[in-house]
Structure formats: structure tokens, C-alpha cells
Design goal:
Structural class: mainly alpha
Shape: globular
Number of helices: 14
Helix content: 55-70%
Number of domains: 1
Oligomer: single chain
Largest sheet: none
Strand content: under 5%
């Protein structure tokens, strides 16, 4: 699946707002997952949120008058359509594998250590985007992302790092594979041919939901033990972090590149900590406020001194007759 390299587009105010919404929605997923798995097995939560997200985005796509592309090429009935090859690749690498690996690994390690491993995702993304998507990699960006990673370690607690030596090595390897999958999916999205965001997001989630469904064969399906609160949280996960946020991610990646979107993985833990304090009454430690300053400094350094772009990637990918708003989005 070859595609020409694309250069980065400097983020504008609209892109920062998109990033903020993604962080807010993504950060809320931790609280919803916590509520969902109280009575529903992790694999069932994963499959459920994917199907809810897929159905939601399909309705959004159809309301906009768009359709999924044909599954097979007309000239070669046994060959997958090129668009579907890209969407299926992303669904496997960026959804199916990580969504199944993370719950499995967290059976053997603490959530704090899992959070630190999640912070590897921006580092993977920047490296892969440099190697395969033509995005820049300079000292400023490296320093900024390193500072952001340090902020995440401080947020979660430096003591958690010491637990790695006495924790399951297999689980830690699986977390690294999962975060690498997230990063690779972001870069593949960046390199993919022009596909309308709503079609792209819908096709990816539909494929992932179908591919992940067999996991239910290995999950306890005692529906009678599920609480209404857990089911509501699964629906919330599907509509928000999986569905709506998935659409925004594709728009943001197409507009600004993989590296900028990866910043959300440094900011999301901060929001998750704040949500835990508000919803579950968890106490905010001094580390949280120190980490906030450090992470924001890392974000500022990684994107300092860049000029505003006059034209976004999403505009370049759009047909000439497509109506476009001032924010650069397809109408």
C-alpha cells in the first residue's frame, strides 16, 4: 500500500481546539472503562464499544449522504477495494490488536505502569512519521516529546517505574506492541489516499468490530450479571471515545500530521486524573500540578517557532466542487 509522503501542516487555532476535544473525550474513557468492567468482561466491553461506535458513525455518514466504498474492485471481484485495504489495515493494527492487548496486560500490571507505557505512543508516532510519512524530526521536537514523557512519569508516580522489574515481562511487551500499533495506525492514516473522514472513520470501525467479534467466544456471556451502569458505560465508550473521537482523530491527522495528534497521549492522562478527582473523589497530589506544568512545557517546545499554515491537508485532499467552511472542513 504505497503512498507519497506528505509534509506537515502547522497547527492552527482550530486544530488546537480539535486536540482539546479529543483529549477531553479520550480522558473520560478511563472512567467509563472502570465502570464498564465492574460487571462486564473486558473482551465484551471491547467488542461492544466497537459495535456501538461503528453503528453511530454509520448513521452519521449516511445522514451526510455518503456511502462506504464497494468491498471488492469491479474489475477484479476477488481483490479488495484499495480504500478497504487501508481501512482494514488500520482497524487491525490500531483497534483490534491494542484493544485486546491492553485489557489482557492489565490483568498482570498496575494501571499506573500501563499509563507510562501508553506515553510511549507519541514517541513511536514521531519516529514512524519521520521514517514513513515525511514529517520533520528535529532537536526541538525530540526535546519537547522527551519533556512530555517525563511529565507523564511524574504524573503517574516515579515509583511505578521501579515496579517494572518485578512485573510480568510478557505483559509489558504486549503493552509496547499495543502502543506501537496505535502509532503505526496514525501514520498509516496519514499516508492513506484521500478518503472522506466520515467514510474513513466508519469503514475502519465497522471492519474492527467485525474482526474483533470472535473474541466473544472466549468471554463469559452471563448477560444477567451485567448492571445497567456497565451497559450505559459501554454505550458511552462507543459513542464518545470510540466513535466521535475516532472521526475527529482522522480529521486532525489529515490536517496537521501524525506528530501533532500524538500530543493527545501526553495530555489525556492529565484529564483522566482530573475526571477521577471529580467523579470518583480521588485526591489530586502535588505531582499532578507539577506534571501539568512540565507536560505543557513539552508541548510548547515541540511546536514553538512554527508558522501558521495557509492551507490544510484536508483541503488539498478534497475535490474542487466540495463546499468548504472557513475552518477547512467538508460540509
Amino acid at each position: 500500500m504505497a503512498s507519497s509522503k506528505q509534509s506537515e501542516t502547522a497547527p492552527q487555532l482550530y486544530d488546537w481546539l480539535l486536540l482539546a476535544v479529543i483529549v477531553a473525550i479520550g480522558g473520560s474513557s478511563f472512567a467509563m472503562i472502570r465502570g464498564a468492567v465492574e460487571t462486564v468482561p473486558p473482551a465484551t466491553v471491547t467488542v461492544g464499544r466497537l459495535w456501538v461506535g461503528a453503528i453511530f458513525l454509520y448513521a452519521v455518514m449516511r445522514r451526510a449522504g455518503r456511502r462506504l466504498p464497494p468491498l471488492f474492485e469491479r474489475s477484479a471481484p476477488l481483490r479488495l477495494n484499495a480504500e478497504w485495504r487501508w481501512m482494514i489495515a488500520i482497524s487491525i493494527i490500531g483497534y483490534t490488536i491494542p484493544f485486546l492487548l491492553f485489557p489482557w496486560a492489565q490483568q498482570f500490571i498496575d494501571s499506573g505502569l500501563a499509563g507510562i507505557y501508553m506515553a510511549f505512543m507519541p514517541i513511536w508516532t514521531v519516529a514512524l512519521a519521520f521514517l514513513f510519512a515525511g514529517e520533520s524530526l528535529d532537536v526541538r521536537k525530540i526535546v519537547g516529546f522527551a519533556i512530555g514523557f517525563a511529565g507523564v512519569v511524574i504524573l503517574i508516580g516515579p515509583g511505578v517505574v521501579g515496579e517494572a522489574a518485578s512485573t510480568s515481562l510478557a505483559a509489558q511487551v504486549m503493552l509496547l506492541v499495543a502502543t506501537l500499533g496505535y502509532a503505526a495506525a496514525v501514520v498509516i492514516t496519514r499516508r492513506a489516499p484521500p478518503i472522506k473522514p466520515r467514510v474513513f472513520a466508519t469503514g475502519t470501525l465497522v471492519a474492527s468490530a467485525i474482526i474483533t467479534t470472535p473474541a466473544l467466544l472466549f468471554s463469559d456471556m452471563d448477560v444477567g450479571s451485567w448492571s445497567a451502569a456497565s451497559v450505559i458505560n459501554i454505550v458511552g465508550l462507543g459513542l464518545g471515545p470510540t466513535g466521535f473521537a475516532g472521526l475527529l482523530l482522522i480529521i486532525l491527522i489529515q490536517r496537521t500530521g501524525a506528530g501533532f495528534m500524538a500530543l493527545s497521549n501526553y495530555l489525556t492522562p492529565l484529564w483522566a486524573v482530573a475526571m477521577g478527582a471529580v467523579i470518583f473523589g480521588e485526591r489530586l497530589s502535588a505531582n499532578a500540578f507539577v506534571a501539568l506544568v512540565i507536560i505543557l512545557c513539552g508541548v510548547a517546545i515541540s511546536h514553538a517557532g512554527r508558522k501558521s499554515a495557509t492551507e490544510s491537508i484536508i483541503n488539498q485532499d478534497m475535490p474542487e466542487n466540495a463546499p468548504v467552511g472557513e475552518d477547512g472542513n467538508e460540509r
